[in-house]
Amino acid sequence: MELKLCKYILVSICVISVTALFLTSCSREEKSDGYIYYRLGTNPTSLDPALIVDVTGGSISAKLFNGLVKLDNDLKIIPDIAESWDMDDKGLTYIFYLKKGARFSNGREVTAHDFKYSFERLLSPGKRSPNTWVLDKISGAKSFMEDKCDEVSGLEVIDRYTLKITLEAPFSPFLNLLTMTAAYVVPEEEVEKMGDDFSFRPVGTGPFVLTAWDHNSRLTLARNDDYFDGKAHVKGIIYRIIPEELTAVAEFELGNLDVVTIPSYEYARYRNSPRWEDYISSVEGINTYYLGFNCSRPPFDNIRLRRAVASSIDREKILNTFYESRGRIAGGPVPDVLRTWKSPVPVEYDPEKAAKAIEEEGMRGRSVRFYITADREIVDIAEIIQSYLKRVGLRAEIIQLEWSAYKEALNKGEADMFWISWWADYPDPENFLFPLFHSRNHGAGGNRSWYTNHEVDTLIEAGQKAVSVGERDRYYMEAESIIVQESPWVFFWHKTDYTLRRPSVKNYKMYAIYTRDKGVEVSF
Amino acid sequence: MGRKGKASALIISSLFVLSLLATLLLPYDPNEIDLDNLREPPSLEHPFGTDNKGRDILTRVLSGGKISIGVSVAAALISMGIGLIVGLLSGYFGGKLDLFLMALVDLILAFPALLLAIGFSVLLPPGIYTVMIALSAVGWASFARLVRGSVLSLREISFIEAARSVGCGDVRILLVHILPQCVPLVLVMMGIKLGGYVLTEAALGFLGLGAQPPTATWGSMISANRVFISSAPWMVLPPGIAIAVTALSFNLLGDDLRTHYDSGRN
Amino acid sequence: MKNFILKRLQLLVLLLFGITLLTFALTKALPGDPVYSLVGERSSPEIIEKIRREIGTDKGIFSQYIGYVSLVLHGEMGRSYYTNRKVLDDILIKFPNTLKLAAGAMLIATPFGVFLGLAAALKRGSRFDRIASGLSITALSVPVFWSGLVLMLFFSLKLKILPPSGTGGVEYLLLPAITLSLPAAATLMRITRVTVLDIVKMPFVRTARAKGVSVFRLNAVHIMKNALIPVVTVIGLDFGSYLNGAVLTETIFGWNGIGRYAMEGILKRDYPVIMGCILIGTVSFVIMNLIVDVLYFYMDPRVTPHGTER
Questions:
Q1: Rounded to the nearest 5°, which phi and psi values hold at A496?
Q2: Confidence category of residue A5, pLDDT binned at 50, 70, 90
Q3: Closest to A310 measured CA to CA, from A496, A486, A494
Q4: Interface touch B38/A384, C-beta < 8 Å
Q5: Which chain C positions have a beta carbon within 8 Å of B199's beta carbon?
Q6: Interchain contact A139–C (C-beta under 8 A)
Q7: Which residue among B33, B213, B227 sits closest to A398, beta carbon to beta carbon?
Q8: CB atoms A387 and B33 under 8 Å
Q9: What's the start-to-end Cα distance of chain C, in Å?
Q10: C267: closest CA among B119, A52, A55?
Q11: How far apart are CA C281 and CA C242, in angstroms?
């Protein structure tokens, strides 16, 4: 018995150790030569252009797909698959002439029909796309979405290489909308074959093809040698998914990443390091960070109180100390890089005046609910804001929620105050006015401060319909100055982003809009 | 109590008292932002340095102790209370009730504790009371199991039989005769478990599910400042050491209690 | 024996029903609607309603539960709301990683814990015993998210010899496995020490000693054989709980395992993911316990399968 027992234990120990050794001894993976290594903070949710709502997914899909038009370095619209296009004087119809020889990675040539298919797929009632707003300005799109007709009447295939798009009404940023990921072209045969799996087995026309997606760990993109628009210099891209910034930086220093976004807390160290300072890139992001008020109910339906809060916070000081000047003070909702007109008159920092106004409005010592997401840097900023408000006699009770719960709360208007940012989908001032301040977009539509001003509504609509840029800017300037005057937000800053690259990386550039970066320029 | 136990109890109680008095003893408000003194390394003015919003680390570590210790002890007491009630009922009345309650206990013990606590913490509005509830919701089961076991062994003992035969009601027997017998046992159990409560409380804080900002707790301080571990370790090391010292003291206290309990019974 | 295993598996099915029902009820009570993770920054109430219908969160809890159970009975776990990927596929990727981490941690913890415990017991009261006991209780008191950070600071950021995070081969495994093994080794050490102390007092040890059995044989065979049961129990329990995911360790070291998956699922209200993780976690926990019980049977012939109901 004893012998048997010993043998049994011995055997089981052997089995366990061999299994464990086998499990743990997967060989160390060397960095693949010619591939550039980037870091992602989160797993992209989907790479299906119809479903993408996050920047992570968007920036990858930009390398896998193409649209009719795209943006250049100066954020001007240039040809992508469309070689050229015509627009009528009223801004109602657009005719796109496609390039010949643009192919999907399965070898088939892209035709005008593919665009019609892709756009209708996005709009179709069966596809649960959250991005229908990108294309619903096309004539007939609304009734198609409601399943009242079989095709979108505004999408006409003239011939194999010509597509005509008719709009319901003139819409000045329409071409800008077409640069978005939602307007990318997808191959019908692959989509139909893969169904829901198309989200993570995408097939497109882009300079890269997705070869592997190790969920939550890495994505591998290989160069598409047949890319119609000049093939990429690197053999491929590997995105490593590393949630912690701290470890991303350490991986970079170990040489396991080629480019890394510099986290706020490491910024000073790299900026002052003679070894690294030449390898820092930056871009003035098209975004606005703001403290929003719920303007639809007390206490912040009161303009004076909103302005008092705005003047109680020293935004410049926060930007220059805590934020280490990694941004530009916001003069209003429209980012400086998009504003071609004079910045509106700002609300100045004046804590005494603010305290007096708060006292007079009967809010001294009262508390307001301040909603934030549970992101580390946002918590920091919220605590700073809270401390400023305390000095003028207002108590902000911070409520930290996870992203989906946070958004639900905002969409329902539960918050008195909230911290959030808005990043451009396309570089047009309209993107910072219509979704955020038009009364039609209350809640989920983007106007989370439930701001309502019919004069502003009218001005924004007029801007959307304006055909000339000068006329458009006049409307937008007026709308913006009213908005700043009424302070539905405290406008904080437009963030500037910084990345650090290894010295071996050449021709690396950051872009203000993620769709601009097709990954073809960078090389070793 | 032995020397170890006394020393541990002294450490914990002095930490707790210091944490209550933190704002009186130190010139700083734990939540006061000072944008002119960000990330100061330890100095005479700030013995543990400041964090990335210029708050004094020492003040925050001390005032965090109030919550970390308070919440853990409160949660352990609540667990003990629920465990006592459930264990008494289950052990004394037996039958279907026992089966049902013990199935519930097994269910909870089979569930990964931290995940269950996380579940409870997202279920309720965030804050220290939620943490207490989450910790107790997970913790009561082992107390109930223990109490039931000891009730089972007591139920058939002769003096209880005797009490029953002279007409004592169930409530009276439970409260007067059985409960006092269980109390030392659960107190020992609580001593043993408290260290674990401190760690779980810290873990929830670390995951952002505990007290809301700007309130300092040890777990949330580590979580918020962990990115500075290499550039400003003074922000991360003190709260970690505080957790370790507290949990260690509770563990030693628990050990000591158990040793005495065991030797007392022998 | 076979009957015993069958009975336990039946119990497992019942437990699964209970746990899924409980989890289902809990997740439905969570604030936060998964639909808001799906719709992006610009959407309308109509689209939100449409997506809600699509993923089925507009129906009653009970009919959703029935739907889920029938899905599981067909060998499916549904798709993540968020990534549209099959939950089962993801679990099949993540579970082996978690297994790897758990195995790595136990591989480190077991020899250390058992050896230290045995040595401490045999030299009871010595300085070695006091130091070892002190170390083990300290290891039990340090939160893993802190010891993990300190290990990372030292080995990755200062010495730069091990990668600070990621999932992969041995070099990635080492830090999280060490972190996780600390409390496990400490528990094992304590259990081994206490058990061995009990056994040493027993008459048969004295007899063996009197019979002139060599010290090594006495320690290795007679004492350890008898100490095996509690030690195996602890190993099994720890291993089982790691299979449910070492949430904190996996989070800090970016280890792509079940714990992180479950945590993200909870935070994002990704119900199919939460349910999948709970299912797999319960199954592995129960099976681990079953293995421990079966091992008892082989280790100690006095234990009959029927006698092991705890």
A1: -105, 135
A2: very low
A3: A486
A4: no
A5: 141, 143
A6: no
A7: B213
A8: yes
A9: 17
A10: B119
A11: 9
User: What pLDDT is attached to residue C216?
Assistant: 67
Closest CA to B30 of A318, A390, A264: A390
pLDDT (tens digit per residue) in C41-51: 777 777 788 77
Q: What is the pLDDT of residues A24-70, one digit of tens each?
A: 444 344 678 899 999 998 888 889 999 998 889 999 999 999 999 99
Q: Longest C-alpha distance within chain C, in Å?
A: 86
Q: Tell me whether residues B122 and C267 touch, CB distance under 8 A.
A: yes
From CA C305, how far away is CA C310, in angstroms rounded? 11
Q: What DSSP state is assigned to residue A138?
A: B
User: Best interface-test mutation with C: which of A1, A23, A437 has the largest number of C CBs within 10 A?
Assistant: A23
Write down the pTM of the prediction: 0.84
Phi, psi of A265 (to 5 degrees): -75, -10
DSSP letter (8 states) at residue A198? G
Judge contact between C125 and C164, C-beta under 8 A. no
Query: Which range, of C41-45, C175-179, C214-218, averages the lowest pLDDT?
Result: C214-218
**Interface predicted TM-score of the whole assembly (ipTM), two decimals:** 0.82
d(CA A206, CA A219): 16
Strands A327-329 and A489-501: antiparallel
Residue of B nearest to A398 (CA): B213
Residue position matching structure tokens 């528990």 = C187
Q: What is the dihedral of CA C292, C297, C299, C300, to 10 degrees?
A: 130
Cβ separation B33–A384 shorter than 8 A: yes
Q: Which residues of B fall within a CB distance of 8 Å from A379?
A: 213, 224
Calculate how close chain A gets to B211, using CA atoms only, in Å: 10
Residue A41 at interface with chain C, using a CB cutoff of 8 Å: no
Structural contact between residues B256 and B266, judged by C-beta atoms closer than 8 angstroms = no
**Which of these, A394, A420, A374, lies nearest to A313 by C-alpha position?**
A394
**Residue C51 with chain A: CB contacts under 8 Å:** 128, 130
